Amino acid sequence: PSLPDFRRYNLIYGWNGTGKTTLSRLFRIIGHQSKGIHENVRYRFTDDQNRSYTETSDYNVPIAVFSQDYISDRIAFVSGSAGTLRLFAVDSDFALDQIKKDKIALNGDPNNPTHSGLKKLLEGEQENLNQAKGRRAERFTEVAKQMWIAITGAARRDYKRREAESEFSAVSSKDRLDDSELQTHLRTLKQDALEKVRLISLPTDQVGVERFQEMLDQEINSHAEALLKKVVSAKLIDRLTEHKDIARWVEEGVKLHQTHSSTNCEYCSQLIPPERARELLAHFSRDDQELKLQLNSLIGRIDALKRSFNAIEIPDKAAFYSDLQAEFSQAKAELTLELRAFISRLNGLQKSLEEKKQDTHNLIERTSDIRFEVLRAAAEKCNLIIEKHNNRTKNIEKIRKVSEEIVKKHWLSTIIDDVAADDKEINELQTKINTLINGDPSDPASPGIAAIEERIRQNQLKVSSTAKACDKLNESLMAFLGHDEIRFEADEATEQSDTDDSSVGLRIMRRGSPASSLSEGEKTAIAFVHFCVYVQSPEFDLENGIVVIDDPISSLDSDLLFRTCAYIQRQFGNAAQLFVLTHNFDMFNQIKNWLIAKNRLKRKKNHEPPSEFFMMETRFDCERKRRVAVLSELDPLLKNFESEYHFLFKMLYCFEAENPSNGATQIDAIYNYPNLARKLLECFLAYRVPISDSFRQRLQVLQSKVCTDISAEDIDHVYSFVNSHSHLDTKSGLLQFDTTLPKTGKECIKILLKLIKQADPKHYEMLEKEARKSSVQQS
């Protein structure tokens, strides 16, 4: 199953050697607190905004880690020349005085009005810089305004400061004009340019001149000639032949009577004699109808052609420059004449085709061929004049553009000297500001504001254990220990420590007298209190930071356990995120109960629970052939019960399932189980065989009184497993691997579980039920 995300409060339980220290060191590396270079460390994690971080990226959330590394890095208990102990916390003897001097350097001396401080000077220089930049910008704003009025005669500001600044960068020297030159260019700018005229477009433009003439020859001229020459033979009716209008009327009537299947004349309602019907059909034969269809088709094409040429747009002479108007009027007249002649020829051909429709039985003489060359030449003549006009318009725009650039350079040249003075002032001010911020690189004695602020920050880190922090440390130490037998006293005198580091130390007093020694538990308590003071100080942003506490009671007396847990709750309950790592089961239970109560309170309000629980385990990586530390979700038995007894039973109960008999059990897999088995068995015998005899004797009493079907040899086998493999029991005094352990250990675990089951079946049944439930939840 996937590991749950870390929450605001996180409890991690694990025995010694499972990787808790490694995890706390990783937090120190992420928080940039670990000394030394960690070239081989690789990690990746995401925050609550789903942003990803690796060892190559900076994580800027403050992280405070209490561990043995914190103590060794920041705390030192040093015996002075008089034999008294002092507390050194990486502080400098001039830290407070230097902070005071640096703050005066930055903010000024309240007792000396003439000493305004670097920040005041910086503020003044930045104001001067802003004013200089404002003056420079205003020059370009004004020149852009004047320039645009001169060029366009309009006050509308289409040309603005940024355009003027951009073009100014290309002005390398003064290009000022005299009044005459300026007026010449201004007149050029004010000269009106006429709009471009669209070229005359002929219907031939889409297919090309040659293709169009080919279409005229083949599809119009030749086709029309063939149709006009075609004669239809039929039995003619003289009257219809003589009177074409009557013929058209009768022909249309024949079609209508056929369409409506009429046998009577629709005009006089008399029966149409069959002989008359046959005469009419003979007069209007099928060939006659076919020819007329072809004639209609060609007439339609000529109509379309006439429409396309009638739609030709010829511009008016008023659109041209005055000197081109007469030339264009003449060319236009020629084009108009040729266009009319072309359309007239089309009309003549169309008229001949119409006559042919009325007399398909005789030859019709055609007019001349339809030719296009003269019309096309007239149109090209007009277009040449149009192109001449358009080129002039285009050239005028170029001339105007050149004059516009010259006028712009003239106006921009008027401010060259002023802008140069502005730039010089701005550069000087920027140099002053940079020196105020970053210091003078040529003068190490003149650090800038940034270096002084960093020095103040570093010195403030050192103040935590000097005189200023003495009262806070004493207050916190009394709250932690519950008494004030141990206290700190500030001592302005300095002593040379073993580390050759001259520092202001705090004298450690015991019951009012200088202390000459401290227990390991007292040292751990002092270090932990120092850490708490550091986390609660302005130096660390607790409400936005991460706090990691790694086994704070490893050397403390057992009576301080509950105080430590309560102290953690008070000191770090407001942290943005808290991690507590411990191997102590009692501390684990105390913190666990606190966090479970937080989860229960949030669930009542339908909020997301703020706490999560984990455990550290070691496993053997067969592929890499080494032990690895694994962070996993806390075993439900440990989470739901306040006794390690349930967890030990579950580990032994599940051993066979996790190490099946058909596979070879590694020594690494069973190595810790003799210790687990002994702890479980001792706890079971304590209440089941409550006598004062030895562990072995109580085990034998249980076998002889209750578990009689388990042999004495099996009991000895179990005893050897839990005793010999949990103690240094060799003559050489060296630890040696028992190669029979993987084979015999599995059998001993079975016998041990059988012993508990026979001695107390109901007790075993309840333990087994919880172990199974825990395994299901984990899977």
Please, could you describe this protein's structure?
- The protein is an alpha/beta fold and 779 residues long.
- Strand 5 (76-79) and strand 6 (85-88) form a beta hairpin.
- Helix 12 (322-358) packs antiparallel against helix 13 (373-413).
- The longest helix has 41 residues, at 373-413.
What's the layout of helices and strands?
Elements: E1 9-13, H1 20-30, E2 44-46, E3 52-54, E4 63-66, H2 68-74, E5 76-79, E6 85-88, H3 95-107, H4 118-152, H5 161-168, H6 179-190, H7 209-229, H8 238-242, H9 244-259, H10 274-283, H11 286-310, H12 322-358, H13 373-413, H14 416-438, H15 449-462, H16 467-481, E7 486-490, E8 506-510, E9 513-514, H17 520-536, E10 546-550, H18 561-572, E11 577-582, H19 585-604, E12 611-621, E13 626-633, H20 636-640, H21 644-653, H22 655-658, H23 667-670, H24 673-688, H25 695-705, H26 712-724, H27 741-759, H28 761-778
Parallel strand pairs: 1-11, 1-12, 4-10, 10-11
Antiparallel strand pairs: 2-3, 5-6, 6-8, 7-8, 8-9, 12-13
Helix pairs in contact: 3-15, 4-5, 4-13, 4-14, 6-13, 7-11, 11-12, 12-13, 16-17, 18-19, 21-24, 21-28, 24-26, 24-27, 26-27, 27-28
